[in-house]
Amino acid sequence: MASQEVETIEKAEKPNTNDATEVSGSAVELRRELGLFSAVNLILGVMIGSGIFVSPASALENSGSVALCLIIWTVSGIISLLGALAFAELGTVVNKSGAEYSYFQEAFGKTHKFWGPLPSFICAWIYVVILRPAEVAIIVMTFAEYAIQPFTTNLQPDYKATAIKLGSLAALFIMTYINITSVKLFVKVQNIFGVCKVFACLIVIGGGLYEIIRGNTDNLNKGFEGSTFSPGGIALALYSGLWAYDGWNSVTVVTEEIINPGVNVPLSISIAVPLITALYVFMNVAYMSVLTYAEMVSVPAVAVTFGTRVLGPASFLIPLGVAIATFGCAMSVQFGVTRVCYTAARSGHMLEVFSYVNVKRLTPAPAVAFQAILTSIFILVGNIKTLIEFASWFLWFFYGLAMVALLVLRKTQADKPRPYRVPTIVPCFVLLVAIFLSILPIVHDPSVKYLMAIGFIVLGIIVYTTFVYYKKTPTALLNKFTFLTQVLFESVPPSNHED
């Protein structure tokens, strides 16, 4: 929003030139700390959450059979890979953090003074204010539920709900501390959690393989029995599968912090997404080797029931795996959305102070703290599933618009070097999928939540018109807020601030 630079605090907090050089190589900005292994683990961290352990049966319920369900999981993985590779091209061309936000700015931002920047603002508005903090709240509450499970078996429901909220806030504090303290610390923790997640998935797959070797293949032998070949049923199954794969664009959200992004962005996607596809398909094979169709669609936590039957005394590994997966996922989602907030603020679409960088740790500390506050509110509110449902509808809408941005940039910036390029049919195909998935939920289940989505867009347009376009901001109040935030987080404007 309107510039609120406070010279006094900048002089007080900004290190001298020599200090700045020692801290960041003559520039106060985010460093490139994530190599290939860390980029792969970031994708793993966001994509592998609680869904594949707790509720992977939606695709089975909507497809009706074991064989068709496995095809749906495989096709969903392939579509996700194609979308991610298209994002990889965008990430290497635009070379800015923020993913869709930055791509919309680059493709449409200068086409019209008012309407051009609006898509990127609405994207940041929904991701930063609603979708991602609410998503982190849901994930961290799932973490708390599984983490405190051994200690709350005899608690009454009200006390247990309070314990889950307190555990969620404690976990949120820890991941916020990690993301404020150091990108290197985040990378180390995330790498450990990424390896542990894959290990937890392999435990499930190993248990399923053991059961298959023992001859427990009755459920798998049913093949296409009971398949639902109606377009609506297959569409809903595909929608469920693609939702489980969401997060494939996570590495492009932090492009400015990837070492050698022209190579590591597409390579990390090419490694991580097929790996996750294989894990998801074989985990479903494992589940269905032990659990019947009725059990798969009815038990509250598929992996826990599977572990109880197959792993015996080692069944505690499944709740532990869910806790590890959810904590790592929430921490990675928070890491990513703070970069969207940081990039949007740098371009004037959020409060400018959210683009400021801690001079010692080189992290966007104000943006991280802002996301933690929003997430805390959602945790305390508790029942936010409807909010998640209507906000999640925007995901594939934005993915589709990103494909349009890719095609636009190929025309308007045809001469710009492209370290990586996908065939034109890929973004066209992903765009068609995005249109389909944007329309499907409204046609299948028209409800008031989509009116809420429209209402939130209208509210975003009002905010954009008032505070961004016409710059009607309470300058004195914002100066005080900026001053306080800079003092509290030892933060200054980044050297790559965009006017």
Observed structural traits:
about 500 residues, mainly alpha, two-stranded antiparallel ribbon, 2 strands, about 70% helix, globular, disordered N terminus
State the gist of this model.
This protein is mainly alpha-helical and 499 residues long.
Explain this structure to me?
The chain is mainly alpha-helical and 499 residues long. Helix content is 71%, strand content 1%. It has 21 helices and 2 strands. The chain has a two-stranded antiparallel sheet with strand order 1-2. The longest helix is centred in the middle third of the chain and has 31 residues, at 183-213. It is globular. It starts with 6 loop residues before the first helix and ends in a 7-residue tail after the last strand.
Radius of gyration: 23 Å
Mean pLDDT: 87
Q: Which segments are poorly predicted (pLDDT under 50) over 5 or more consecutive residues?
A: 1-26
User: What count of helical segments does DSSP give?
Assistant: 21
Tally of strands = 2
The dominant shape is globular
Along the chain, the helix and strand elements come as: HHHHHHHHHHHHHHHHEHHHHHE
Q: Classify the helix fraction into a percent range.
A: over 70%
Largest sheet: spatial strand order: 1-2
Instruction: Tell me the structural class.
Output: mainly alpha
Largest sheet: 2 strands, antiparallel
Q: Span from first to last CA?
A: 11 Å
Strand content: under 5%
